[in-house]
Design brief:
This protein is 8% helix and 41% strand. The chain is mainly β and 357 residues long. The chain has one domain: TolB, C-terminal domain (Neuraminidase, 6 Propeller). It has a four-stranded antiparallel beta sheet with strand order 1-27-28-2, with no helix packed on it. A four-stranded antiparallel beta sheet has the order 3-4-5-6, with no helix packed on it. Strand 17 (236-241) and strand 18 form a beta hairpin. The longest helix is centred in the first third of the chain and has 16 residues, at 56-71.
């Protein structure tokens, strides 16, 4: 039997201190972002990998997350390794999405700018197509709208780009209002889609807000500010709209998810502890969140929880790091930056979770 090593950072360790792409004037000049805004997909340095001592309140908060994980049963899902059959190597993956046919879209961060950052695979990992080269500085989020269009987010340029399914550029939204252009991560992070064609974007690395745009990319309004109160955020990292038009927003450094109506009215929250990177709505209306205990490498003490937002009940867990998570229409959980290496096999693998049959 082949030995398998599962880690969100197997490949990242080899890229220690590397920029998201090949060296550029920006990459050489930009100082490191503060720890609270560091992105684990790019920040694959020894400092991130090693444990660090936390202040007492943060330690207690992360210990609470570990305690919740211990008492939560595993979800009835199996971990599936998919070998990537592509004409080039896959770099650290920031996010994954799945279309209605089950095809998987990877948004990775190649060092070579001549390699496409969007890679489309069939459900078995066979390469279909790729696109997007030369557009992005720091690929961050990828989503597929109900029409099958592909939306991508650059966390450095604070830019949202919409593509057709075959990779034709259809729309670009420059979010703007970047407080510190010298920071690699100071921009938008994610998008989600409303039935009326509007989109909601989370703008969290420097701005604690989310923004509504119309279908043409015109800004309608925004909500939120930096802080720890209701409707305030300490790094807005992920956003998802449910079928009943409730927005679920991942407040990363506060270790919680908050939810709102589509006009920004605060409706509720649930605190998990540590860091909460992602919040995704499942086909059954349940919410999946990707969490991590602070002070330790992301390949340890990272959990995906499924919970009922109406009752607050936590229904189950998976053990994996989920940077920007997607739940497919068939219930497949795509956690994002999980790089899998199989001993004696030089190929690239991705990992997903599928319901046990």
């Amino acid at each position: 039997m082949r030995a398998v090593r599962l880690s969100a950072f197997v490949m990242l360790a080899a890229l220690s201190a590397a920029p998201a792409f090949a060296p550029s004037a920006f990459a050489q000049a930009a100082p490191a972002a503060p720890a609270a805004a560091a992105d684990p997909v790019t920040a694959g340095s020894r400092a991130v990998m090693q444990e660090r001592k936390l202040p007492p309140d943060e330690q207690a908060d992360s210990d609470g997350l570990r305690a919740l994980a211990k008492m939560t049963p595993a979800l009835p899902m199996e971990k599936v390794l998919i070998k990537v059959d592509a004409p080039f190597a896959i770099s650290p993956v920031s996010a994954m999405a799945q279309d209605k046919a089950g095809n998987i879209y990877l948004f990775h961060r190649p060092e070579d700018r001549n390699i496409d950052p969007v890679v489309v695979l069939d459900p078995k990992g066979k390469y279909i197509r790729s696109f997007g080269k030369g557009i992005f500085t720091i690929p961050h989020g990828i989503r597929i709208d109900p029409q099958g269009n592909v939306w991508t987010i650059d966390a450095n340029k604070s830019m949202i780009v919409k593509f057709s399914p075959d990779g034709k550029k259809l729309l670009q939204i420059d979010v703007g209002d970047i407080p510190d252009a010298t920071r690699p991560f100071c921009g938008a992070t994610d998008v989600t889609f409303a039935p009326n064609g509007h989109i909601y974007a989370s703008d969290g690395y420097c701005n604690g807000r989310y923004i509504e745009y119309d279908a043409a990319g015109k800004k309608v309004r925004q909500w939120g500010s930096k802080g720890k109160g209701d409707g305030e955020f300490n790094l807005v990292h992920d956003i998802s709209l449910s079928a009943d038009n409730i927005l679920y927003v991942a407040d990363r450094e506060s270790g919680r998810v908050q939810w709102f109506d589509t006009e920004g009215k605060f409706l509720g929250k649930k605190h998990f502890g540590g860091q909460l990177f992602s919040a995704a709505v499942g086909p059954d209306g349940m919410i999946y969140v990707g969490t991590h205990a602070k002070g330790i490498g992301y390949d340890k003490d990272s959990f995906i929880f499924k919970f009922n937002p109406k009752t607050g009940q936590v229904l189950g867990k998976l053990e994996a790091f989920a940077h920007q998570m997607t739940i497919g229409a068939d219930g497949t959980v795509l956690p994002g930056p999980v790089t899998v290496k199989v001993s004696s096999d030089p190929g690239d693998y991705i990992m997903v979770f599928r319901t046990k049959k």
